[in-house]
Amino acid sequence: MIGVSSGAGMTDIILTAFWQTIYMVFWSTIFSVVLGFIPAVVLTLTAPDGLKPNKAVYEILSFIVNVFRSFPFIILLVILIPFTRMIVGKAIGTTASIVPLTVSAIPFIARVFETSLRETDPGVIEAARSFGASNLQILFFVYVKESIPRMLNGIVLLIISLVGYSAMAGTVGGGGIGDIAIRFGYQQYKTDYLIVCSVILIIFVQLIQMLGNHMYKKLS
Question: Could you tell me if 2 and 156 are in contact, meaning their C-beta atoms sit under 8 angstroms apart?
Answer without folding.
Answer: no
